[in-house]
Amino acid sequence: MKVDVISFDGKPAGNIELSDAIFGVTPRSDILQRVVHWQRANARQGTHLVKTVSDVAGSGKKVYRQKKTGNARQGEKRNVHMRGGGVIHGPVLRLHDLDLPKKIRALGLKMALSSRAMGDKTLVVIDSEKVIEAKTGTMAKSMKKLKLDSALFIGGAVLDANFKKSIANIPNIDALPAIGANVKDILKHKVLVLTQDGVKALEERLK
């Protein structure tokens, strides 16, 4: 699959051959859903915790005598219906991690890349993400010129520092090195923008 390469100015900068084994895979919604579900589950910390009756500090002594107080009968202050008492059926410490075979994860990433390559103007390849200086205003004009209002940039092993600073405050524009490319972020943005180094790094990662 041959794709045109452009610069930040929108000018032609040659073309590049994309591997059909990575950018030409027929997407399957069930595979993509499994990978996104795995990503979201593994991102959860699982550190939510409440105190049950046994965890609340205080004595288990009867609050007051059983009869002739004019109040409802109470056993102890730590009961769930008392102010400051324990919580019943609340969240506890747990792991939300899921297991997913590496082959399925790799296949999901290939399908996500392919879905952008097969779409209409949803894959753009630029020559390089490197810029001379970090200027958000200049970068925002470049994004407007390229008609990018929701895009994920994927570069090579390391992203240019000035480029990262330039897009930091532009809404819906994100960037990742090739090693950080993932299904969730690719599907989250309307357009996928790859650098030439990013293409090589992805093909090396998924070969």
Description:
This protein is α/β, with parallel strands linked by helices and 207 residues long. It has two domains: 2-39 and 99-206, Ribosomal protein L4/L1 (Ribosomal Protein L4, Chain: A), CATH 3.40.1370; 45-95, no CATH class. The protein is built from seven helices and six strands. It has a six-stranded mixed β-sheet with strand order 2-1-3-6-4-5. β4 (151-154), α5 and β5 form a beta-alpha-beta unit. The protein is elongated and about 90 Å long. The model has no long low-confidence stretch (mean pLDDT 93).
Question: How would you sum up this structure in a few lines?
Answer:
The protein has 207 residues and is of the alpha/beta class. The chain is built from seven helices and six strands, in the order ββαααβαβαβαβα.
How helix-rich are the residues, as a percent range?
25-40%
What is the CATH superfamily of the largest domain?
A: Ribosomal protein L4/L1
Number of strand elements? 6
Query: How much strand content do the residues show?
Result: 5-15%
Number of domains: 2
Mean pLDDT: 93
Radius of gyration: 27 Å
Element-level helix/strand string:
EEHHHEHEHEHEH
Structural class: alpha/beta
Structure characteristics:
7 helices, 6-stranded mixed beta sheet, single chain, 207 residues, 33% helix, alpha/beta, Ribosomal Protein L4, Chain: A
SSE topology sketch:
Elements: E1 2-6, E2 12-17, H1 20-23, H2 29-42, H3 102-118, E3 123-126, H4 136-145, E4 151-154, H5 161-167, E5 173-176, H6 183-188, E6 191-195, H7 196-206
Parallel strand pairs: 1-3, 3-6, 4-5, 4-6
Antiparallel strand pairs: 1-2
Helix pairs in contact: 2-3, 4-5
